[in-house]
Amino acid sequence: MSAAGRVLVVDDEPELLASIDKILSRAGYGVRVALSGEDALLALQSGPPDVVLTDLRMPGMGGFEVLRACLQRYPDVPVVLITAHASLETAIRAIREGAYDFLPKPFGADQLLVVVERAMERHRLTQENRQLRARLGGARGDAGVAILGDSTATARLRQLVARVGPTDLGVLITGESGTGKEVVAQALHQASPRRDRPFVPVDCASIPANLMESELFGHERGAFTGASGQRRGLVESADGGTFFLDEIGELAPPVQTRLLRLLQEREFRRVGGTRQLQVDLRVIAATNRPVEDMVREGSFREDLYHRLNVVRIHLPPLRERPEDVPPLIHHFLEQLCARAGRPTLSVEPEVLDGLSRYDWPGNVRELVNCARYVANLAPGPAVRVADLPVRIRGAIGGGTSDLTPRVEGAPGMAEAGPPVRYDLPYKRAKRKWLEVFEYAYIAHLLREHEGNISHAARAAGIDRKSIQRLMKRNGMENAWSD
User: How many contiguous H segments (helices) and E segments (strands) does the chain have?
Assistant: First the structure.
């Protein structure tokens, strides 16, 4: 690791990428480059950099999408947007959406270094504050990661994390999608002696099966077509720390076999390699699938299951712990209002009562989407029932809004919420309407095809993974399944 810090640079112009790499490397930074937003997401899976520099306009995934993906996975990492299309409006949007800074092209080496140094200092202070909060304890205990809630189940969870975290035992976390399995894995890591080493999360469902072994274990040059050089895998990135495998049930049998050897021997070979490499890591796994049924069916190795399932932590769905809803909604509103640059909204008692009665099919992820929605759209200063997304408002008996947009030929648009505000700037209002359309379109498509994701994808003319990504972004993946 570089003493100065690690920087991920994302730009579709190879010449500019090489120039930034050269400047930062000479200044002592460890630099990783990505030629597209999609490549940047793969790079982020190997662990957080200290700073991200990303171009704003790129083919495919643009800078704002990279920004949102980075903030979702690593909210403490400063993101700097760079672009040749500088304007006051773009700069304001970048900061409001969570960017640390904005760097207009063309820029010189000195200007680049000043921005990166400032971002590095911000990251260092954030990490120091986080470590201080962890030492102070409180509701976070020794974990340093908030496990919020007033229910008996959540209190027991905090106690279990405090007991299991300091050990090196394998943990299997189960529960419906959106219940917060990665948060619990992070809390276990922060409560362990490995807290200052990497926490490397891997979403097994998002990596294509033919790339999984290479992503996890790395590869040697010439291991397969396109393997032009040696590449370290995510397992090596987690050396000394915690390796979190989310959706473990998606692993193919050959990968299960390699993972079992890793757990038994603490060693592995890169794809195409002959040398055994030693690693020291803790493995935490999670799944929303009935893994015992998979063992009985023969699709999941029983010996691997027992290796992973030393300690079992089951997260009940949010509908079974309504006492957790008020502290969670207050917590997320505080975070998201700050990110939106506005005072924290209070919540009227009837809203808290209604949200506590709602069944939250998308669990905590849906609650976060609701809070994000309200933080950006509610006029304030208090959240009223009328400010909630229509699908939630209707479920708790709050009716619908006259301002909810309806589009001819798009049944179910009202279910998407939100009440559109006409006092917003044009581009922001347009973006909110497009968010409404996205939710309504996907919901309508799934209803038309009775929840069959594959059929819905064919009707939309996009692939299944794109539909699943849109469902996840809108908190819908737990409400529909094939």
Answer: 19, 14
8 Å CB contact between 123 and 74: no
Q: Which CATH architecture has domain 148-316?
A: 3-Layer(aba) Sandwich (3.40)
User: What is the overall mean pLDDT for the chain?
Assistant: 82
Distance in angstroms (rounded) separating the CA atoms of residues 182 and 154: 15
Choosing among 3.30.240.20, 3.40.50.300, 1.10.8.60, 3.90.550.10, the CATH entry for 322-473 is 1.10.8.60
Q: For the chain, what's the residue count?
A: 482
Placement of tokens 């009440």 in the chain: 419
Structural domain boundaries in the chain: 6-134, 148-316, 322-473
Rounded Cα gap, residues 16 and 144, in angstroms: 39
pLDDT per residue as tens digits for the range 113-155: 999 998 888 888 766 655 544 444 433 434 346 788 989 999 9
Is residue 299 exposed (0-12), middle (13-18) or buried (19+ Cβ within 10 Å)? middle
| Second-level CATH architecture of 6-134 | 3-Layer(aba) Sandwich (3.40)
Whole-number Å distance between alpha carbons of 249 and 103 = 42
Give the integer Cα–Cα distance in Å for 82 and 91: 10
Q: List Cα–Cα distances, 66 to 54, 108, 302, 310, 339, in angstroms.
A: 8, 24, 38, 36, 17
Which 8-state DSSP code applies to residue 121? H
